[in-house]
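Before relying on records like the one below, remember that each one covers exactly one chain. Contacts with other chains, cofactors or solvent are not represented anywhere in the record.
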Amino acid sequence: MSRISRRTVLAGIGVAGVAGSGGIALFMTAGGRTEAMRAILHRLVGPFTMADAEFARFAQDFEKAYRAMGALEADMLRFFETAGPVRNLTRLRPAVAARLESFDRKLLTEFALATGLTGAPPTAPLEYRGLFAANPCTNPFAHLS
């Protein structure tokens, strides 16, 4: 049986640290708000196709209308989306879970209205038609009577 030396353990820790730092740096620089929104919508709607330029316009208009999140918040949302089980940990903090759920609903509602999405995503690429934020009520749960 071979013994692992202290030098080998320290070298392994050093390599893991460098690799981890590189992975975190890559994660933080790639994507941002647009990728966070796309990941959330893929979870809520399912896989859909939309031109990157059109989705970027939607994300920009959504951000302008709602001032929804900062860069750090977008990175955290994207982290929650890509590391699935981590999102479940937010349930331990009801205020965080409520904020994430509210954001998800707002994003889904605006996306559905801005693309004409009803039901399952079509096989054809979705088109961005403009944001409906100026509309007096975009709440899908509203009881209008």
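The two ends are 78 Å apart (CA to CA).
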